[in-house]
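Lab notebook, entry 220. We have the chain sequence and a SMILES string for S-adenosylmethionine, and the next step in the workflow is to get a structural model of the bound complex before anyone spends time on docking refinements. Request logged below.

Task: model protein plus S-adenosylmethionine, output structure tokens.
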Amino acid sequence: MTPRSFLLTPELGDYVRRCSEPPDDVVRDLLAETAALAERGEASPTFQIAPEQGTFMQVLTRALGARRAIEIGTFTGYSALCIARGLPADGSLLCLDVSAEWTAIARRYWDRAGVGDRVELRLGDAHESLRALPAEPTFDLAFVDADKTGYAAYVDALHPRMTENGVVLLDNTLADGTVLDPRTDNQRAIAELNVALAADPRWDTVLLPLSDGLTMLRRR
Ligand SMILES: C[S@@+](CC[C@H](N)C(=O)[O-])C[C@H]1O[C@@H](n2cnc3c(N)ncnc32)[C@H](O)[C@@H]1O
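Result returned:
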């Protein structure tokens, strides 16, 4: 099953997809292989971003002219594939994840799409991997889609590593609609971060009602 936004009826979701650039064979196969993982109970069915978000991120990467990007939370590689496809041929994407198993699937699809040479994968805790990077402006684009209670720390660690005007995207910032009445640690972390970011002078901030909520930060 393809991930869907709770904000759209199934009919409107299908309409949104029909009116966006259609997925090619590589994306179709990656979505199907990931859905099969979820059906076997080997991964959460909500991990992968929705196709309309993937297309948006590919268009945004290209429109920004991003050359160096970083992703925190790669899973089977769909969001990374979209970013990598939006980069120029000599661009680079650094992917951070803990799972060798899931990212091995990702690597197969990046190679098949012809963008494997743009993507470097670092396995391990992303907080440590990020802290180990030089604290200097490096990335034009960042996408955060890993441990929700770690988002505030990722935002802080990314700030000095983003170029001026660099954009950070944070996934799941509507937390399935629970931000109005957060009950779990993950939900509370997202709800508190949303309020803090709206008043954070380091960034221009907008929470887009795309998919499960996508917050876009521009480094001031
Ligand atoms: C929601 S999934 C990412 C989905 C992916 N962006 C996509 O669209 O297919 C979250 C991923 O974050 C990884 N993850 C969670 N906590 C992490 C951590 N502390 N360090 C590195 N990776 C982490 C998990 O292994 C998982 O692959």
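Notes for the group: Residues 47 and 178 are 17 Å apart (CA to CA). Worth checking against the assay data. The domain at 53-219 is CATH 3.40.50.150 (Rossmann fold).
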